[in-house]
Structure formats: C-alpha cells, structure tokens
Write a structure and sequence with these properties.
By secondary structure, the chain is α/β, with parallel strands linked by helices. 38% of the residues lie in helices and 18% in strands. It is built from 11 helices and 12 strands. The longest helix has 18 residues, at 178-195. The two termini are 31 Å apart.
Length: 352
C-alpha cells in the first residue's frame, strides 16, 4: 500500500548540506542481472540531475551534497549522472532504468521533469526504491520528496521588505510552471505582509518551458535582473537554478541585494566574488531529503509515498550567513517571528 507520511525530522540540517560540489561521480556496470532484470549487486545511491546539472551552486549541488554524505557514511558505491541537452522522457527513463539495472538503490531523479520517466522505470524495477524531487509519482516503490518552497520564500519576502530602500523588489523565476509559482507566491506574500503593501514586487519569468533554458542560462537571468534594477528594484530574489547566477552577478554589479535559492549561495565558492551582495538564501534541503531516503533504504525500511519537507522539520528555511543580515534593523526578529507564526499555523502561506 502506498504510504503517505510527513517526516518528523530531516536527518541533515539545511546549513550542513549547503555546500558546493566539484568532483564528478560515475556509473558502474559490474553487477550481474537478477531474473527480473534487476541487479543482485549491493551498490548504493544514484542520482540523475535536473537541467543545469552539477555546478549550479543551487538545486542540483544540494542533491549532490546529500549523495556525498550518504557515500561517506555508508561506504558504498554511488553514481551521479548529468542530463543531456534536448533529451526526451525516453532518455530519462533509460537513464533511470540503467542505474537500477546496475544495482543502485535508491535511484533518485532530481527535478519534476523526471515524473513520467520515473513512473515507467519504477514499474519495470519493483524491487528498487526510487525517489523523485519536486514531484509526486504514485507507485509502491517511489518516494516523492516534496518541499514547502512557499514557506522559505515567505521568509525571503520578509527579508526583502526589511532590506529595501527603494520600496521596489524583484522576483526572477526560471520557468513559468506551478513549482516556481510557489516561490513567487510566498515571496510576494512575505513582502506584502511585512511592508503593509508599501513595497512593490516586480516579477518576471525567463521562459515558458525548461527546454528554452530558463533554469540553465545565466545570461537570461542577468538580463532580467538588469531590467528590474533599471525599474528601481534594490533586492532581487531568483528561483531559477543555474540562471540565478546571472541575477546575482547583476545585483552585485549594481550594488543591490540578491537573495539566493535552494543552497546557501553566500557560501558557494563559485559565487565568492559576489557574496558581499548575497543578503540571504531561501533554503531547500534537497540534500537532506536525498540522504534521508538513502538512509531508509540502508536501514531496510525504505520510505515511499509523499515525504514533505517544511519549516516544521527544517526542510526549508532562510540563511543568515552574511554578517550584514544581522545588521539590518529588525530583520532577524521579523524572520524569527514569521517562522514561528508559519509553524504555529497563524500564517497560511499561499502557493499561487
């Protein structure tokens, strides 16, 4: 029976997993095949990246951090596989099935784009536990790892409202899809609630589809950010994967604030030259979710069904790494108050 559950604790805190990744993983085909097509090998976790791949300093790198922790703790072989440009659902399915056939367990697709492919692959490999980040797949051997992005984004909106001097802030979404709408909705609500409606939010989506590069084009992010800065925005929040690096670059050049996403981008080595202008990041503990699923399989009690990571379990949050964060009058207290009220149910954060 498909089990729907809410985790009571994320195994790894957001901050401990928000690190940059530099090494590349690989795959192996050493294991023999079982009678049902699944390997009898004992390899561990494998992840298949979303658009943008490893090195995005954000979403995919957070997943890699979870893989690294599992690899170190459990001492097994892991694999992490890059996407290819213009790939189809059939390509994704083949990738997932190849990993399962080689004996990796669990096999995790990082991103909602893996939905159709995972449903098909999970049906062919019922003894393998699969995981998908940011989507729900209904299958007995799939764990759907979903997040309350809107809650972290609300806190980002609180920060933006407290930090702005122009009373205009920006939001840059990578692709115009429901998942990114959650980021925008929470951010706008946080800004409006904190400012009493006095702060204006300028929103822009880079593309209508992921295939057009909305999550993988820093140049598009940079151009959008420059346009918002010209309109007076002095705090810019990007939920755009690799494209968000362009937003951060533009913000730093204009000497205005940027708000990162998914990982603590203030701490990312590749963004070090811009860190002084990264006020905070809306955190999403993808690494913790990846590790938690891997641990459940290692413990012989694989998670399945919907696993929700929200503020209550520290599955999402807001970074305070930049020392300037604490220097902005009332910011830390406002964020702490908002977090408590969300957890207590006093604030209901919108998803649209």
């Amino acid at each position: 029976m498909r089990r729907i559950s809410k985790l009571t604790r994320v195994a790894v805190g957001v901050a401990s997993l928000a690190l940059a990744a530099t090494a590349c993983g690989g795959t192996s085909s050493e294991s023999g095949n079982g009678g049902d097509g699944e390997s009898k090998g004992t390899k561990g976790l494998a992840i298949a990246y979303d658009i943008g791949g490893k090195g995005d300093q954000s979403f995919n790198d957070a997943a890699y951090a979870g893989l690294q922790k599992a690899e170190k703790e459990f001492g097994y072989k892991t694999a992490d596989i890059e996407p290819t440009e213009g790939e189809t659902d059939a390509d994704k399915q083949q990738r997932l099935e190849s990993l399962a056939k080689q004996g990796y367990n669990p096999v995790i697709g990082v991103g909602f784009a893996y939905g159709p492919a995972m449903e098909a692959a999970a049906a062919k490999f019922p003894k393998t536990t699969f995981g998908i980040v940011d989507s729900e797949v209904k299958a007995d051997n799939v764990a759907s790892l979903v997040f309350a992005e809107q809650e972290a984004s609300y806190l980002a909106g609180v920060a933006a409202a407290k930090a702005t001097k122009s009373n205009t802030v920006g939001f840059v979404g990578g692709v115009d899809v429901p998942l990114i709408h959650k980021f925008e909705a929470g951010y706008k609500q946080g800004v409006q609630d904190t400012s009493g409606g006095k702060v204006k939010v300028i929103s822009q989506y880079l593309t209508q589809t992921a295939e057009e590069g909305g999550f993988s084009s820093p140049d598009k992010g940079k151009a959008a950010a420059e346009g918002q800065i010209e309109k007076g925005a002095d705090v810019l929040y990007a939920a755009a994967g690799l494209s968000g690096q362009g937003v951060i670059e533009a913000a730093a050049k204009a000497k205005v604030w940027a708000i990162g996403v998914d990982s603590d981008q203030y701490k990312q080595e590749a963004l070090a030259s811009y860190k002084g202008f990264i006020l905070t990041s809306a955190l999403k503990d993808v690494g913790g979710a990846v590790y938690t699923l891997a641990k459940s399989v290692e413990d012989g009690k694989p998670l399945t069904g919907v696993q929700t990571f929200d503020l209550k379990v520290n599955g999402v949050g807001l970074a305070e790494s930049n020392p300037e964060f604490a220097k902005i009058a009332g910011l830390s207290d406002a964020v702490a108050k908002a977090k408590k009220e969300i957890v207590d149910g006093q604030i209901k954060v919108k998803t649209e």
